[in-house]
């Protein structure tokens, strides 16, 4: 939604009004073994269940998670997937704390 303050024939100011949207971008080094792609996982608590964020393996080594919420902390890890669909052991983890709001 746009909110503008205008005087006839003169635009004084205009700003875009929206809820602050956060995202997390993670990247990793490519596997030295042949792979078809990578699965990205996220946990929202230190010991909670992992959620697979990519339903299919992604080809690149970068992922943007646009579904994070302000005030939350997330832990991410990645697995490599070979041509037989087998996953590697999980990568090391990275933690992202999202500012509020």
What does this protein structure show overall?
The protein is mostly beta strands. The chain has one domain (21-97): Immunoglobulins (Immunoglobulin-like, Sandwich). 0% of the residues lie in helices and 43% in strands. It has no helices and eight strands. It has strands at 2-7, 10-16, 24-27, 37-43, 51-52, 62-65, 73-81, 94-97. It has a four-stranded antiparallel sheet with strand order 5-4-7-8, with no helix packed on it. A two-stranded antiparallel sheet has the order 1-2. The chain has a two-stranded antiparallel sheet with strand order 3-6. It starts with a strand and ends with a strand. Mean pLDDT is 82; it is low at 1-17.
Q: What's the arrangement of secondary structure elements?
A:
Blueprint (H helix, E strand, L loop, with lengths): L1 E6 L2 E7 L7 E4 L9 E7 L7 E2 L9 E4 L7 E9 L12 E4 L4
Antiparallel strand pairs: 1-2, 3-6, 4-5, 4-7, 7-8
Name its key features.
single chain; disordered N terminus; 0% helix; 43% strand; mainly beta; Immunoglobulin-like; 101 residues; four-stranded antiparallel sheet
Strand order of the largest sheet: 5-4-7-8
Largest sheet: 4 strands, antiparallel
| Contiguous uncertain segments of 5+ residues | 1-17
Percentage of residues in strands: 35-45%
Record field, number of beta strands: 8
C-alpha end-to-end distance: 19 Å
| Topology as a string of helices (H) and strands (E) | EEEEEEEE
Query: Rounded to an integer, what's the Rg over CA atoms?
Result: 20 Å
Q: What is the name of the CATH architecture?
A: Sandwich
Oligomer: single chain
Shape: elongated
User: At the first level of CATH, what is the class?
Assistant: Mainly Beta
